[in-house]
Amino acid sequence: MICDGRGTPLKVITTAANVNDVTQTLALVDGIPPVAGRPGRPRRRPDALLGDKGYDSNPNRNALRERRILPVISRKGCPNITGMGKLRYVVEQTFALLHHFKRLAVRWERRTELHDAFVSLACSLICWRRLKKTRT
User: Fold this and answer.
1) For 57, phi and psi rounded to 5 degrees?
2) Which stretches of 51-111 are DSSP H helices?
3) What residues pair up with 70 in beta bridges, in sequence order?
4) Helix axes 84-99, 112-135, angle to 10 degrees
5) Among candidates 19, 8, 45, which has minimal Cα distance to 112?
6) Taking phi first (over 0 means left), then psi (-120 to 50 degrees means alpha), and beta for anything else, what does residue 84 get?
7) Nearest Cα to 118, choosing from 99, 94, 91, 90?
8) What is the pLDDT of residues 57-95, one digit of tens each?
């Protein structure tokens, strides 16, 4: 999953349990939909991508730089980036919000399409609740 700085889910990809997260990094970044906000053309890519040591890969770093995205990823074997835990908490909080939908905590569906549909519905509900909260 990739989310913005407030924890709003932008793109979710379902993979098998034994697939490394680093293999899906570029697919997640490329799959971000246009996000409107300020006047002008909607943004298609973030300024920076934050990730933990599981996303440390030189080819991914280079591909992100080619897309003009600053990779803020801790290197394996080096101390963690200061304050990364507070930023990582946003993603973990979003996963916790998805697990509030009991059907998503454990995947019961055999067909991936059904599971993806439930995840999309849950992400839509999370976005709608955040929009509703900011408007009141």
Assistant:
1) -155, 125
2) 58-66, 84-99, 102-105
3) 48
4) 110
5) 19
6) alpha
7) 99
8) 889 899 999 999 998 887 777 766 666 677 778 888 888
